[in-house]
Amino acid sequence: MRCAWFIIPxxxxxxxxxxxxxxxxxxxxxxxxxxxxxxxxxxxxLTLDSRPTxxxxxxxxxxxxxxxxxxxxLVPNDEAALAQIPAEVLEQLRIPYSSSFTFPVGMTVGxxxxxxxxxxxxxxxxxxxxxxxxxxVTIDERPVSIIKRVxxxxxxxxxxPNIIRIRAVYALNGVPTQTFVDRDGMLELxxxxxxxxxxxxxxxxxxxxxxxxxxxxxxxxxxxxxxxxNLRFCDADCxxxxxxxxxxxxxxxxxxxxxxxxxxxxxxxKPYEKDIVLNFYLVVRDxxxxxxxxxxxxxxxxxxxxxxxxxxx
Length: 313
Prior knowledge:
Layout lengths: L3 H7 L1 H4 L13 E2 L4 E7 L3 E2 L6 E7 L10 E4 L5 H5 L3 H7 E3 L4 E2 L6 H5 L3 H10 L1 E12 L2 E12 L9 E10 L2 E8 L2 E6 L6 E8 L10 E8 L9 E2 L6 H5 L11 E4 L1 H9 L6 E11 L14 E11 L2
Parallel strand pairs: 1-14, 3-9, 12-18
Antiparallel strand pairs: 2-4, 4-7, 5-6, 5-8, 8-9, 10-11, 10-13, 13-16, 14-17, 15-16, 17-18
């Protein structure tokens, strides 16, 4: 069988020791060192015949979402473990960051379970079993990794939430303005007319449609690597009610307010000689008790990015 040689090495990702350094989300501002923010699997609950896909979200000052950085999937980035895997297998497990990883043709979740008597026994007894999905990447010679649990079950009932787009609300030259930014899209504003505040509100599919219960939000941002804008996420001191119709916003609420008044004042006096690029990251998780924790990763997740470009004159 074409994939027989493939399944046995892949089972290493269940038995090898995995150290997950991402115990907590970082603070809402990500600095110059890129880091893994989240992992999304096609669905949080899979059947035996599933061939899931997965994608990482990495953020950091100047990090390009189109990066061809290599991501290693399913097996730990351990020299001893990797030495046992044929080169042609590793080639299928190493995927550019900008692409989604999909289980190779001929490989299913059920075929992996069949290679582990312990996991297969749990599934046979309970009708379900939780599996870890592992991914690692080396960024500037720093190895970083993340693990997400998925549930193999006969009857999936929970699915990923779905971010449709982001609504952006601001005053441009004193005129109230509303625009919609597509997933992983871009909002451009002129440097000589930057608003003091921008309200961001993700538009979501109906949670009930996806079997979601309580959605938890986490906003983060990264500055331009060459220009500090001193932007911040507002709390109770911003006009969130005027812009978004909510009393208070934080990096852990659905809506967020971005305070740009410092860079706005500075650029009105003297525009910068090049575009300033700010990156925003939103992770939405289902049934998560703490928005800052990665401990509970079993249920659904979605994420998106938004690039804010302050255009030079």
